Hints:
By secondary structure, this protein is mainly alpha-helical. The protein has four helices and no strands. Helix 1 packs across helix 4 (46-127). The termini are far apart.
Amino acid sequence: xxxxxxxxxxxxxxxxxxxxxxxxxxxxxxxxxxxxxxxxxxxxxxxxxxxxxxxxxxxxxxxxxxxxxxxxxxxxxxxxxxxxxxxxxxxxxxxxxxxxxxxxxxxxxxxxxxxxxxxxxxxxxxxx
Length: 128
């Protein structure tokens, strides 16, 4: 809803400042369900009601600004979280690859150690 329509909603259209117009918008009477409008109609003058509406509108605008700021922070946090998840996945794949390489190097080391032992035994056998 645009700012102008907010103002129209809260303040009515120009030229409808009569008590009937106020009552038709829910500002008068005790049978209404809206506690804010009941609060406003309890002996407040038109000027006081107008001031209260402007304060309420200001509060709504402040809340809207805070909500927008929080939404921006949430969006940024979600981007960071997504990037961290991608990095974690990449690191996990890298770890798996390195573990596989390490396993291959261990097998080669064991094979070379076995060959060395066999070569030493053969060398000792030829000396005797």
